[in-house]
Amino acid sequence: MSTMKIKIGSGLNQLRLQAKYMLDDMFRLPRPLGINSAAWAPSIDLYESPGTVYMVADAAGVERQSMEITIEGGLLRLAGRRCSPVNLKGKYYHLMEIEYGPFERLVRLPHNVDLDRIEAHYRDGLLVIIMPKKDSQPVTIQVS
């Protein structure tokens, strides 16, 4: 009969983290992007002020020129690619948590935005998209 020694402290914490990652992977829901879906998608925050919609995407390691931002029909599409900073072939991994490769994220915008005044800034691994809301005045419709 074999015995297993567990060092209390960091080893137990490491075991807990590994179990969490395995469960996260097992219960991760598939993204509804179709057959050619991307390998990963950046985390985002979407919020608004009275006149503006903001989106912040965690895009650390993504080169600015690889990002594509499009808005059509009230959907914002953020796509691009994160490349590994080292050659991954022939390496033995002890732990690999950072996802590389293409990504795509679709977000339904809560308001119509002024497409001519949108700004995007990328700094310190965060992409910030500032989208002024389109002025829409209420319309009264007469019933005939």
Summary?
By secondary structure, this protein is α+β, with helices and mostly antiparallel strands. It is 12% helix and 31% strand. The protein has 1 helix and 7 strands.
What would the keywords be for this entry?
144 residues, single chain, three-stranded antiparallel sheet, alpha+beta, Immunoglobulin-like, four-stranded antiparallel sheet
Question: Could you characterize the architecture of this molecule?
Answer:
With 144 residues, the chain is α+β, with helices and mostly antiparallel strands. The chain has a domain at 38-132: Sandwich (Immunoglobulin-like). It is 12% helix and 31% strand. It is built from one helix and seven strands, in the order αβββββββ. The protein has one helix at 10-27, and strands at residues 44-48, 52-58, 68-72, 75-82, 101-108, 119-123, 126-132. It is elongated, with a radius of gyration of 22 Å. The chain starts with 9 loop residues before the first helix and ends in a 12-residue tail after the last strand. Mean pLDDT is 82; it is low at 29-37.
What topology does this entry show?
Elements: H1 10-27, E1 44-48, E2 52-58, E3 68-72, E4 75-82, E5 101-108, E6 119-123, E7 126-132
Antiparallel strand pairs: 1-2, 2-7, 3-4, 4-5, 6-7
